[in-house]
Amino acid sequence: MSKTYNLEPISQSLQTAKTVLILLPQNPNLDTVAAGLALYLSLKKNSNLSLTIGCSTPMTVNFNRLFAVDKIKSHIGNQNLVIEFDYPEDSIEKISYDKDSQKCYITIEPKSGMNPLDPQSVKYSYTGSSADIIFVIGARTPEDLGALYQEEKKLLDNKTKTLVNLSHLDKNAQFGTVNIYDPTASSCSEITTSVLQGLSLTIDADIATNLLAGIEANTNNFTSPNVTADTFTLIAQLMKLGAKKGYIPQSPVPQMPQPFRPGLSQPLRQQPLPNRMPPAPFSSPKPAMPAVPPSVQSQVIPQPTTPMPSPDWLKPKVVKSSQI
């Protein structure tokens, strides 16, 4: 049985909410992104909520196989239109606007002698989000959101909003109005799985695959010490729901070669060290010469000599038979 958290405040807020905002910290890991996307997909499948998921830093190639990763936005504001343009300082005389029942007119008047505004330099963007429920996934403090916190500080600091702080990281600031904080969990994806089950939200094969990929990544394929029996229970449930194990391959951890140890059935193969000179070929030791007695060392031992050939030995010879 999976862990249970106090989800009643979230359940009540979802009954009346119209807009939901899911925020990820800057430079998130795969587990955080997977958990946020799983929550996004599940809420989208189970309701008619207006959903936005955002992260201040762009997604890297490591996340490109996660389902719905293209839905993550770097700017989440949708209330206030911001007009940006290049223009020298102190060159504007005044900015005025006029409106009627259908249109609004903005007039930018340059100072005398200054060039008019170049329309090619005008850019448009939005700030100011509106949300009934805000989920912050995998952050210790709101400041971990980076630029999104600066842009949406007014919204995030509004205590009348339901702000859900979902995290397993240590030293969490408990900054939410609802804190789903579990430092004993292996990952944010493990907590999110329990939250989706507790809220009776649908988990299909894509959502389950995202969640399993997050757990795999944050536990180094289930080998880290924070993996518990609860973790394996959720893994089994996700696989029954269609999760693909190993959907995002993990980089293997390099292993150092081990020397042979007595008692093993076979010696472990050891890699040769670089730049090592090859060993000299084996050769049998030469027998030691017997020591020469001192009485013999002074004697001159004559050496056998080879007789010198005759001077005409290279000349051709005529063989004569004695019978002719």
Verbal overview:
This protein is an alpha/beta fold. Among the domains are: 8-78 and 128-240, inorganic pyrophosphatase (n-terminal core) (Alpha-Beta Complex), CATH 3.90.1640; 86-121, no CATH class. Helix content is 23%, strand content 17%. It has eight helices and ten strands. The chain has a six-stranded parallel beta sheet, covered by helices on one side. A two-stranded antiparallel sheet has the order 4-7. Helix 2 (30-46) packs parallel to helix 5 and helix 5 packs antiparallel against helix 6. It is flat and about 135 Å long. It starts with 7 loop residues before the first helix and ends in a 27-residue tail after the last helix.
Element layout with pairings:
Blueprint: H1 8-16, E1 19-24, H2 30-46, E2 50-55, E3 72-73, E4 80-84, E5 92-99, E6 104-110, E7 123-127, E8 133-137, H3 147-151, H4 153-156, E9 162-167, E10 178-181, H5 188-198, H6 205-218, H7 229-240, H8 294-297
Parallel strand pairs: 1-2, 1-8, 2-3, 8-9, 9-10
Antiparallel strand pairs: 4-7, 5-6
